[in-house]
Amino acid sequence: MTMPTPQCPWRMQVHHIRQETPDVWTLSLLCHDFYPYQAGQYALVSIRNRADVLRAYTISSTPGVSPFITLTVRRIHEGEGSNWLTREVKRGDYLWLSDAQGEFICADKATECFLLLAGGCGVTPIMSMRRWLAKYRPQADVRVIYNVRTPQDVIFAEEWRDYPVTLIAESAGVPGFTEGRLTREILQQVPDLAARTVMTCGPAPYMAFIEQEVKALGVTRFYKEKFFTPVAEAAASGLKFTTITPAREFYGPVGTTLLEAMESNKVPVNAACRAGVCGCCKTRVLSGEYSVTSTMTLTEAEMAEGYVLACSCHPESDLVLA
Ligand code: FES
């Protein structure tokens, strides 16, 4: 089997697949070589072993603890990657993964006091780090708050019995859950909150609420996982974007990234890492003002031709795209 793209050089075989919740599955993978990664990181997966369709998934396993490399995937309606992984991939099949990526990790945090908050499928890096902390920093004081829609949506339900966790479900009605949503009052009940390193992963509004609340409550060390970006509604005004082929105009609000503007208007664009690392979202800008926060995968010649990484491109005027 040949490597579909140099970005995904790690061949892994599916050992088994386990259903976690009605719409989430964990794929356990065998890698015959040593695969270096840190708890909390993600990898790109070549979907259908194609070079041009890469998707990012958190590695939900924990180095030095888990026997397999695992990906925990929510099946998203019309999601090409998640439907392939959760419907078609079978035991014995091979997947191709990138190097592990991302900076949402706990191993580099010189602290013994954590609050980890997860919303929905954002629990995957949180569980990876929770196991890591239990094994490598057993003396650490770690609190976890996990928000789900209903009790049956708890991912890693059995494993959470090993760790103290506050479970919050929008509709609960069973013991062990707080019913409702995360509130400032719940955060205030966390002992020594201001002294904790707070790490969160989940939908963007959930993370924004936590950031605002914990900072107001004195937290100074706050980290969130950035690549769970829901697609926004298409804007009807703001900066104007024009594509040449096909000829089209669309809008994005000031402050948006080029990727967000394209995705919200259903302009075809590949995106995986959303952090200027993988190079998937390479797009050519013909004219207009913009700044960039990453050019990591671009050559000098490509930049001179106006190529940008759309996820790391911040438009400052109307743009014309190739
Ligand atoms: S999505 Fe990876 S570089 Fe933009």
Automatic annotation (TrEMBL):
Query: What InterPro entries would the database entry show?
Result: 2Fe-2S_ferredoxin-like_sf, 2Fe-2S_ferredoxin-type, Beta-grasp_dom_sf, Cbr1-like_FAD-bd_dom, FAD-bd_FR_type, FNR_nucleotide-bd, MRET, OxRdtase_FAD/NAD-bd
Q: Which UniProt keywords apply?
A: 2Fe-2S, FAD, Flavoprotein, Iron, Iron-sulfur, Metal-binding, Oxidoreductase
- Which cofactors? FAD
Entry keyword annotation includes Aminoacyl-tRNA synthetase: no
Q: Name one GO molecular function term.
A: oxidoreductase activity
The main enzyme category here is: oxidoreductase
Indicate the family of this protein: In the N-terminal section; belongs to the FAD-binding oxidoreductase type 6 family.
* Record-given protein name: NADH oxidoreductase
